[in-house]
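Worked problem 6 (solution included).
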Amino acid sequence: MRHQKAGRKLGRTASHRKATLSALSVAVIRHKKVRTTTAKAKEARMVVEKLITRAKRAVAKEGDGKPKDVHARREVFAFLRDRDAVSTLFNDIAPKVATRAGGYTRVVKLGQRLGDGAEVSILELVDFNLGQEKAAPKPKAKATAARKRGPKKEKNETTKNAEEAKTETAAAGTPAHAESSEPKAAESDSN
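Solution. The predicted structure is:
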């Protein structure tokens, strides 16, 4: 029986598990979301929540011109081992979640991975709604596709106009081959 043995082993040794959770935490802090297996996402969520709470409390203490809480930054750095992630956590994320009582992250299940059938999820920060922002550019992609279609029609119209001009010149009595021979002569002069 596994009484009082909380947490998932994730099929790793303790040091490997700590390194995996550290890497996932850095990825969530940097990119605001990460795609991983559901088990890893649920374990990393607990770690990230504690790191954000630590940073939030440190930033709250630093208010009113007090010095930075270096101890809190060093404790977080001891786990993350990434200076950019620590600065992002304390400078960007902690002030944004200052009013939130908890629940800084969410796990969104995506289904099963095709290769091995593992259940896959996205672990993301709640206050950074990247999924909704990425949904907006899709109409822009359609607009660019419409722009690409537009010039093709214009090219077809220009070729039709050129063909009509040739037929008009032929009808007017000017030989059509005389116009086409002049550019060939110009091309041979340039070579």
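Discussion: The mean pLDDT is 83.
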